Amino acid sequence: MRLRQRLPLSLVFSLIALGYMTAAVALAWGLARWVASPLIAAVLAVLVLAPLLVYHVRRAFAPMRSLFRALTGTVGSYRDGDYGFSLSWAGGGELGDLVASHNALGDALREQRLALVQRELLLDTIVQNTPVATVLVDPARRIVLANLAARKLLGEGRRLEGQDFGALLGAAPPAMRDAFERGGDGMFSIGDEDDEDIYHLSRRRFRLNGREHELVLLRQLTAELRRQEVHTWKKVIRVISHELNNSLAPIASLAHSGAELLRRGQPERVPAALATIEERARHLEGFIRGYARFAKLPAPRTEPVDWPRFVAQLRDQVVFVVDGPVPVGSVRVDAAQFEQALLNLIKNAHESGSPAGEVQVAIRRLPEDWRIDVLDRGHGMNEAVLSNALLPFYSTKRNGTGLGLALAREIAEAHGGRIALLNRDGGGLCVSLTVPA
Fold first, then answer.
1. 337: helix, strand or coil
2. Distance CA 404, CA 392 (A)
3. 9 and 64 in contact (C-beta within 8 Å)?
4. Inter-residue contact 87 to 102 (CB < 8 Å)
5. Dihedral sign for Cα atoms in the order 298, 299, 304, 305
6. What would the pLDDT profile of 213-224 be if each residue is shown by its tens digit?
7. Where is each Histidine kinase domain found (predicted)?
8. Who's near 28: CB < 8 A, 6+ residues apart?
9. Within 13 Å, how many C-alpha atoms sit on residue 377's CB side?
10. Quick check: pTM over 0.70?
């Protein structure tokens, strides 16, 4: 919109005032000849010139009034989200500065609106094309948004917006319904063993426009888990092959050497070869037994286990120092599995390079759990080892199987607990095993 003001307002007002003062004086002087009173002549002059004064003042203010109307209209358009115009003011001064600032505001709002629209388009494209089924549910359990993956999974490709989410779940596979009924996040499988799809369910609540909504994410993990399964099997085969070769190669070599010694008539050296063969065979037996124990870990059969008696049995098998008093009372666990988990952790502490007297076990009662800390003053772990230490078959030891911590983790989680590793100040490691009280 283009507005003009040819002369500065101060100059216009000065000229109008001067002109009307002159005209008023002249008109009053002329009327004084016909009217007896000079006051009446002045009043008549003012009454005659007043309409003309109002007219010229309005003409002088017209550009400014047009500018204010234009500003009012643009502000209303900004409120409605329309930023596609600007003002043009031919004059300068403070009004020119006001118009320039107003146009700069419009340009900034227009750029921000364009950037927002582009981000919304990008976000919508990402949400619609992500392989994760995404559903937004309002407080009335109506679907507000469902992307393409959600339509394919829950609606056979049809639009889901506006439908009742509960009714939609009623027609879903039983495993999916069970996962939602359990609440929170979880995993479930759809199909049979020959054609099974595995999904991860994630649910988050948040407030949108002052109302609580729920965001449901269903991510298919089948392909990813299959890749992880193949990767794990390859790693298992590599570890087993390496361990078998490390044991069978010296056994074969020593057996050949023993036969050669007997042929040469040197039987006195045979027992040493046989002892080495026995040591490698027993190591291989323990290695295979560890893998079998990890693969065939049964569900825990829990029963109350008295703490003082349990700690005494542990100390009969491995050396450690009890940090603090042994709690009075019991914990409900599978005694054999729980003992195996703690033996693995304590043996790892001894193998960490820690002095035997610095290997400690601390048992603490938390509000809802028992926490058992196994502490040492060994070399600790760097970040890379900490992030992988609980994975099966991961080991930094030359002859390690990578199953000790992994087995302890499996036992803890089977009991509804967890395990965590943390480097200690001053060196060493703290392994915390937590189980429900």
1. helix
2. 9
3. yes
4. yes
5. positive
6. 999 999 887 766
7. 239-437
8. 38, 41, 42, 44, 45
9. 9
10. no
